[in-house]
Structure formats: C-alpha cells, structure tokens
Amino acid sequence: ADYAVTGNFSNIAYKEAQKYGQISLAASSADRNHTYIPAQDQLKLDPGASYFYYCANNTIYGTEWQYVPDTGDVPIVCDMSSDILSRPVDVSKYGIIFAGAQKNMAPAGLTVAIVREDLAGHELPCTPLMMNYKTMIDKDSMYNTPPCWCIYMLGLVLEWLEGQGGVPGMEAIKHGKASMLYDVIDNSRLFTCAVEKDSRSDMNVVFRTGSDELDAKFVKESTAAGFTNLKGHRSVGGMRASIYNAMPVEGVEKLCDFIKAFERAN
Predict the structure, then answer these.
(1) In this structure, are strands 2-5 and 52-55 parallel, antiparallel, or unpaired?
(2) Res. 235: pLDDT tops 90
(3) What's the pTM?
(4) Ramachandran category for residue 140: left, alpha or beta (phi over 0 → left; psi -120 to 50 → alpha)
(5) How far apart are CA 91 and CA 89, in angstroms?
C-alpha cells in the first residue's frame, strides 16, 4: 500500500501498517516540518498498490488536504477524524473513510466508517473479529454492544448540523471563521503562520510570535481572559486555535480581538 505522511497521525499509521504488509512512502512533508501538503505531481503512486492512505487534516501542524488525490484504480483510504462534516465529500472517490467522532461529531468512543462493500472480506488471517469491517457490516454495526450514548449524541449533533444549513452551510461558516483568523495573523507584525496558504487547515490554526517567552505570555494571558487550550502541541510549540464545527463565530471574533490587543500591548 502507499502512504502519504503529512503529520503525526499519518506517520503513526505508516509505521503501524508496516507490521502487516509492504508499505511504500508515496509522499512526505517532513522535509519542511509538515508545513505543506504535497501536490498531486509530488505523489509517487504505485498503480498496483492495494490502497493509498492519507490523513485529511493534520491537527498538530495545521495543514489540510484541499484536494482529493487522483490514484486511478487504487482505492483511497482516508482518516477524516478532524474535519469530517466540515465540508461536502464525494464518497464515491474513496474506498474507505474512517473518523473518530471526538472532533466534529460526538464524544470520544465512537468511530464512523464508510466502507465500499467490495473491499470488505479480504482481511488478513490475523485480523481480530472486532477489527474486521465485514463483521460490522454483517452485524449492522452491533456485533458487540455499541456505544449507545455516543450514538445518541451524534444524532443530536446531526440535527443541529441540519439547522446550520447542513454540511454546505457548515462549510461556509468554517471558511468564514478560518479566513477571519488567518487574516488577522497575516496582517500582524507580531504573529506569523508558517503553513503555506494553499495547505492551511480550516480546523486548526497554528501561529506564533517568534519568541518562546511571548508565546508563553500569550497563552497565560489568553487563558486568564477566558480562552482555553490555545497552547500549541508540545512537539511544535507556539499556539493553536482549534475551531471545530462547535466553535461559534463569536468565539473566533473574540480571539481575533484578543490577538490584536495583545499585539498592541507587546
């Protein structure tokens, strides 16, 4: 299989997959600290691969695939955990889509999988029943007791999403939130975003001042002002604003105002 490594989770997936088969590195953005998404012509694809894997959104590095790779007849397997329901998806272009619910759908503990049925039933002999897609398909996702509370919460979230104009409506909202925040950062003399503009995530906006001391001050003062979890991941530092579907526009507006005020004071 072919794997594209564009961040932490895809790197873990790439390493784990090597336990079960012959895995090729189709692309990597590690050469520039994962600040970009490889273009189509940078993908080294094997037409005989069983599948091509990528992670749609990279929460730690603040990058997001803005296109669906063209892999010919090779099925695409995509981890959409952190941007599912934030934009329309042509499911027919994928072999398997899977997503942990904890970002945009429901509490942690539930995983949604969309599987092309002809791809099920080809598991390795060592595959546990619980990890076998065919088991879940044959048993209507109830081979074991499902996480009922999480599924109930997902139902409520989907009802709320319909009220926002469905997925197309949510896409417009999230574009507005992200554009607002990136505009403030790009026009700042203090803050910068290292991610290439055509690879930027609409879910996770990463930024920094260039000074570890000022970054720490920003995190401390923003926390005191009522903002939470703005500290960047320990592996990259800086700041990260996670503006998933549940984050209202007003919250992003207030963060933009705080960023401007902090710059004026520093």
Answers:
(1) parallel
(2) no
(3) 0.95
(4) left
(5) 6
